[in-house]
Known about the structure:
Strand order of the largest sheet: 1-2-3
CATH architecture of the largest domain: Alpha-Beta Barrel
Number of domains: 2
Structural class: alpha/beta
Distance between the termini: 57 Å
Amino acid sequence: MSSFHNTISRPPAFTYAGRELQCDSVAIEKLAKQFGTPLYIYSGSTVRNRFQTFDAAFAGIQHTVCYSVKANSNLSILKTLSQLGSGFDIVSGGELERVVRVDKRPGLASSSRASARMPPRWTLPSAPASSCSTLKAKGKRNC
């Protein structure tokens, strides 16, 4: 392995097996051949670990960790976080649609602010009414 590999900083899930760069023990080259490039590669183990570490910091206190969908609306990331019990912070109807695609729990999404991009009443045929139970716009419950 060259000294270059030893001097760069990378997330812990990205490692070398010999001269092959891997993410969660899957060869990056194999992913590039399968899906083409450019390619965004996320470490599921890192996402899970970071969520669980943050969530554990509030052990003993009733809480819900909510992920900002605006930060990254990748459906695989949202599904992984949903499976861990995450809630979601959204600012648009499109973000709500993405969350509902991966999670049907009531009260899974919340919004702390009204947005000009949000209709006054969020009505999504694909979203069960209970999915909107904590959404607020202009200080009022809309769902």
